[in-house]
Amino acid sequence: MDHLTIVTHPLVQHKLTLMREKETSTAVFRQLLREISQLLAYEITGQLEMTTKRIETPIQPMDAPVLDGRKLALISILRAGNGLLDGMLELIPSARVGFVGLYRDEETLQPVEYYFKVPDNLDERLVIAVDPMLATGNSSAAAIDKLKEAGATNIRFLCLLAAPEGVARMKEAHPDVPIVTAALDEKLNDQGYIVPGLGDAGDRMFGTK
Question: Which residues are catalytic?
Fold first, then answer.
């Protein structure tokens, strides 16, 4: 699947295993998510456009590489997306930030929108949408729909875990949006949760049920 990148770095996989364990506390889960998000961000930003800037080092002038174009936009798919967002902002503090509020109807498994606020000029920015879980893919596809309606044309999707059903749904709805994840799990269960997964990422991050 050329639209899907699985990050197999040993640190990513080790931290993910710790997050999967049901005994892992809320505080530790939150910290691990922050750490793993930075490692995933390193992967998904590997092809950013570059230019050069004339600078003075303590030794001599040089043309040094810097990021080109407008600041990229990080879009958190609420609420669990905030866990990935926090870590990525430590790595990319100048990024613009937006939010898409969606929740999944537990009966229909379809997304319901309740909030949408994004930076301007999305058509001139790399847009990275973040959500820890790509399960059915319905909420993620709906969020990408909204971002495209707002003008985004260069979009990438970052998640912690993905299910085959979610990857297929995203490819069908948005074949132009690459996906970066730490793992592709086996399947979804009857409740739409990823198996073996790690439970509800939002609940585990915020200590709610």
Answer: 104, 108, 200, 203
Are 112 and 81 spatial neighbours (Cβ–Cβ below 8 Å)? no
All residues at 6 or more sequence positions from 89 whose CB lies less than 8 Å from its CB, including other chains:
74, 95, 97
Number of Cβ within 10 Å of residue 159's Cβ equals: 27
At 115-138, the pLDDT tens digits run 999 999 999 999 999 999 999 898
- Could you write out the DSSP letters of every residue in 20-62? H-TT--HHHHHHHHHHHHHHHHHHHTTT--EEEEEEE-SS-EE
Domains of the chain with bracketed CATH? 4-46+71-187 (3.40.50.2020)
pLDDT at residue number 78: 87
Q: How many CB atoms lie within 10 A of CB 96?
A: 18
